[in-house]
Design goal:
Elements lengths: L1 E2 L12 H14 L5 H7 L5 E7 L17 H9 L1 E7 L4 H10 L21 H4 L15 H7 L3 E7 L21 E5 L11 E6 L9 E3 L2 E3 L2 E2 L9 H15 L7 E6 L19 H13 L3 H15 L7 E2 L19 H30 L6 E7 L8 H7 L9 H7 L24 H7 L12 H4 E7 L8 E3 L3 E2 L3 H8 L15 H4 L12 E6 L2 E6 L2 E5 L12 E4 L17 H18 L6
Parallel strand pairs: 2-10, 2-12, 3-14, 3-15, 4-5, 4-10
Antiparallel strand pairs: 1-11, 3-13, 5-8, 6-7, 8-9, 12-13, 16-17, 17-18, 18-19
Helix pairs in contact: 7-10, 8-10, 9-13
Length: about 600
């Protein structure tokens, strides 16, 4: 039995005293205007630092119940606000499109990832503006408006919004409002300097890099080479610090966007982990020993910690949770051979070190900014990834015997070759993703994974801290989405709105404690990706699983997310919910019409 109640009505009760104290002090200091209005009236506009992790699961970091050591993110949560009901889009570039535009991904051109246009999209979708696979040029990315308002704008890491089949120079970060940028154009790549892309890319022959190579840009320079000692998380942090410090004396505020590619596959360790006797080698070995207990045991440990932290209700029951994966092809840990368990434990250890190392680099970044005058936002772009590289390559038509670099790597994935053999797993030359059993743990307490419209695909960690944010380390179950960030940042910067209509709403009144919710009752949000659908309004969710994951995209379910975030109890056919079902079906159809959703083949 499962009863998965979340604290979904504002601030968690365990923090009520701190909340009362915060408001009492605020009232004494701000007798005329509220905290949000006071911040906007200040002559000193805050810096804004946005940090996005790639494919990080909901429960991976310590503040959300994970065993992975993330002291800097945990401290950020302790000094600010932790959101337990924040939503992104089901996959990378649709989330980033909504982030940059403040609107639905279809209206921004990312109803489908550009990689999936080759083999997964219908002719009708390919002809529609909402499925171009890049951020439409007629939209204004919010950094453009921040820069016009006097902000320095910096970006490092994964971009994944460019038109790689034409008009590349008009769609890189430098063309979308970023004063300085160092970006990976595609959706993923080797974390080392070999520039191997995560997926074959449809770059035309004659581009600086094409086929299986990653493409990097610095400012307007396309095809930037990487240093020999490149490791993504370190390099992106160094670059962003360099950009921030280069303008630190002029007194202008900045917006900085750290779009890390960790822990997106290929899972690869920082180079320090290969140094004999190093701190990171010891951490790696420690995680390996810890994960030998397996993913089934880890489920119960994480859920217990999530209850202690208040991420999920203390009386939530998950008695059948270890069995959930069996129906999804995940074998019981104890049914695996000793060699299989050993290898899978190492895979998860590589993932954990990547997450902890990202936290370490985030700590370096936070130490170099004025946190008294910097609003810091941390989130993941979607849920945990459970799809293997081979399955993704199949979906875009990579031939099984192509003989390219990808296939050579894949042939070693069973551990029979030098690169992906056990002893080199996680080091230069290896190329793999972790097991779906670990992805199930990463996404706890939700069902489903990245690319699904279930909560496991769209519910993400979100931490906010800094001026104008309640600073009592509270938890909130208020509903919010990635579309709310652009209007929030625009209001913080006192910048003009972009030309497109914003479908999100500024979070400032909520963050300051002036309101208990981001959105008023009756506010709803829809999702669609590759035939998967969802619509959330007032705590209820209409959901249809996509064909790629065993659904048909038309068989609906209804879930009460306040009491069932794991989506186990389908209320769709319950007569007591008939009116709500009818209302939400109408709302989804209105959403699909308004945003130009094209039916999936």
């Amino acid at each position: 039995m499962f009863v998965g109640r979340f604290n979904n009505n504002g601030i968690n009760q365990m923090h009520n005293y701190k909340k009362m104290l915060f408001h009492a002090l605020s009232a004494a200091l701000l007798s005329v205007v509220g905290p949000a209005e006071s911040l906007l009236a200040s002559e000193t506009r805050p810096n804004i630092l946005l940090i996005v992790a790639d494919d990080l699961g909901y429960s991976d970091i310590g503040a959300y119940g994970g065993e992975i050591n993330t002291p800097n993110l945990d401290a950020l949560a302790g000094s600010g606000l932790t959101m337990t009901n924040f939503h992104a889009n089901p996959s990378c570039s649709p989330t980033r499109a909504s982030l940059m535009s403040g609107t639905d991904s279809h209206l921004a051109g990312l109803g489908i990832m550009y990689e999936m246009r080759h083999g997964a999209a219908s002719p009708e979708q390919l002809a529609a503006d909402g499925y171009k696979g890049y951020l439409l040029p007629e939209l204004e990315a919010f950094p453009t408006k921040l820069r016009q308002a006097g902000y320095h704008t910096y970006m490092v890491g994964k971009w994944h919004l460019a038109n790689v089949q034409g008009g590349l120079a008009q769609t890189i970060p430098a063309a979308r409002g970023f004063e300085r940028s160092f970006s990976l154009v595609q959706g993923g790549a080797s974390h080392y300097g070999d520039s191997l892309a995560a997926l074959p890319s449809p770059f035309p022959v004659g581009a600086p890099r094409h086929n299986q190579h990653a493409l990097y840009t610095e400012d307007w320079n396309i095809g930037t080479e990487l240093p020999a000692d490149f490791y993504s998380t370190t390099f992106y942090t160094d670059k962003l610090i360099e950009y921030i410090e280069s303008d630190s004396a002029d007194g202008q505020p900045f917006f900085a966007y750290a779009a890390y590619t960790a822990p997106h596959w290929p899972l690869q360790l920082p180079l320090e982990a290969k140094e004999e006797g190093s701190e990171w080698q010891r951490k790696f070995q420690s995680y390996q020993a810890q994960y030998e207990a397996g993913y089934d045991a880890l489920i119960h440990r994480r859920l217990a910690k999530m209850k202690r932290l208040g991420i999920i209700a203390r009386d939530a029951e998950y008695d059948d949770w270890a069995e959930y994966g069996r129906g999804n092809g995940i074998p019981a840990w104890n049914s695996l051979s000793s060699e299989e368990r050993k290898r899978k434990a190492r895979e998860m250890a590589v993932y954990a070190v990547m997450v902890e190392y990202m936290d370490y680099q985030i700590g370096r970044l936070l130490a170099r900014v004025d946190q008294e005058n910097t609003v810091v936002v941390f989130m993941s772009d979607n849920g945990a990834e459970a799809t293997s590289p081979r399955a993704l390559w199949n979906s875009i038509g990579v031939p099984a015997d192509s003989g390219n670099e990808y296939e050579n790597l894949l042939r070693d994935s069973a551990g029979t070759g030098d690169y992906n053999g056990y002893d080199n797993l996680g080091f230069p030359g290896s190329y793999f993703a972790y097991d779906p059993g670990w992805a199930r743990v990463s996404g706890l307490p939700h069902r489903g994974y990245k690319s699904m419209t279930s909560e496991g695909g769209i519910s993400v960690p979100m931490i906010l801290s800094g001026p104008g944010v309640r600073s009592d380390g509270a938890l909130s179950g208020a509903f919010g989405t990635v579309m709310d960030l652009a209007p929030t940042f625009l209001q913080l910067a006192q910048a003009d709105s972009p030309v497109q209509e914003l479908r999100g709403e500024s979070m400032l009144p909520f963050l300051a404690g002036d309101r208990d919710a981001i959105h008023a009752a009756g506010y709803g949000v829809g999702w669609e990706l590759l035939g998967g659908k969802a619509y959330i309004e007032d705590g209820y969710k209409l959901f249809a699983l996509d064909p790629r994951h065993g659904g048909d995209g038309v068989s609906w379910s209804l879930y009460d997310l306040v009491n069932d975030r794991a989506e186990q109890h389908d209320l769709f056919w319950d007569p007591g919910y008939a009116e709500r079902v009818e209302h939400l079906l109408q709302q989804y159809e209105r959403y699909a019409d308004d945003t130009g959703v094209v039916p999936y083949p």
